[in-house]
Amino acid sequence: MRRLPLIIGGIITAALVTAAILSRFWTPMDPAAINIPLRLKGPGPGGLLGADQFGRDELSMIMAGAWTSLSIAFSAVAIGGTVGTVLGTMAAARRGVAEAAIMRVNDIVFAFPPVLSALLLAAVLGGGPVTTITAIALFMVPVFARVSRGATLQVWARDYILAARMAGKTGTRITLEHVLPNIATQIIVQVAIQTGLAILTEAGLSFLGLGVAPPTPSWGRMLADAQTYLATAPHLVLAPGLAIAISVLGLNLLGDGLGRLTDPREAS
To answer: How far apart are CA 74 and CA 88, in angstroms?
Structure first.
C-alpha cells in the first residue's frame, strides 16, 4: 500500500506524457479544424468527447492541450527549479549575510502569486507563453530555494562533510560532489509536485487570456470559451476540467509516492 500513490501517480503521469507526445504526430482530427455542422455536438461515435462551438474535436484539442500545458509547466519548473536550487544551496553553504540576503529576496518574490506576476509582466511584455513561463518560474524560485536550503543544511551537518572540509575541499566542490547528490531526491519530489501546480497555474492564466494565443489549444482557454455554453453543452467544461484535475492529481500522487518511498521513516 505504501507504493500505491506512486503507482497511480506514475500511471496517470505516463498517460499524460504519452498523450502530449502523441499529439505532436497524431490526433483523431486536426485540433484547429473548424467544422460548423458539428458545432456543439455531444460525445458520440463521430467524436468521443464531442465538438466545441466551432465544431473542433474536443479529444484532439485535449491531446494537443496536454502538450501546451506540459511544455510550459516543464519549462517553468526547469528554470525556476534550477535557479532556486542554486540559490538555496549557495545560501546554506555561505551562511551569514549572504544567506539572509538570498532568503529575504526569495520571501519578497514568494509574496507575489504567479497570476499577479503574469499580470504585471503582461503589461510590459504582453501575454503569451514566454510571459506565462516567466511568471511561473519566478514563483518556483523561492519554493525550490527553501527546499534545497533546508535539505542542504542537513547535509552540511554530516560527518563526511566535515571530513571533506578538513581535506581542504572548497564549498563549491563540496556542494557539487556531496550536497547535490544527497538532496537530488528531495528536488525530484518537488519537481513532480510543482509541475502539477504549474499546470494548474498555466490553465488559470490561459483562462484569463494571458496564456498561449489561439488557435493553439489550451485547457484553460477551453474552459474560458466553454463557460458561455455551460447549460447547453456541459461536455465542453467537463473535458478540460477533468484533464486539469486528473493531471494535477497524478503529479501530486507521483510526488507524494516518491517522497514516501525515499523517507526512512516510511521505510521502517
So the answer is: 20
Is the model's pLDDT at 179 over the cut of 70? yes
152 CB neighbour count, 10 Å cutoff: 23
Cα–Cα distance, 239 to 222 (Å, whole number): 9
Provide φ and ψ at 214, rounded to 5°: -60, 150
Q: Is the CB of residue 202 less than 8 Å from the CB of residue 69? A: yes
pLDDT digit string, tens, across residues 40-97: 888 887 778 888 888 899 999 999 999 999 999 999 999 999 999 999 998 888 877 8
CA neighbor of 62 nearest in space, from 255, 199, 196, 239: 239
Helix, strand, or coil here: 263? coil
pLDDT tens for 88-141 read 998 888 877 878 888 888 888 878 777 777 777 776 777 788 888 988 898 899
How far apart CA 121 and CA 133 sit, in angstroms, is 11
Total Cβ atoms within 10 A of residue 252: 19
In sequence order, the 6+-apart residues with CB closer than 8 A to the CB of 26 are none
**What local confidence, expressed as pLDDT, does residue 100 receive?**
85
One-letter amino acid at 201 equals: T
Q: How far apart are CA 188 and CA 181, in angstroms?
A: 11
C-alpha separations of 72 from 86, 155, 236 in Å: 21, 32, 23
Q: How far apart are CA 141 and CA 146, in angstroms?
A: 9
Give 209's DSSP letter.
T
> What is the pLDDT confidence band of residue 263, given thresholds at 50, 70 and 90?
low
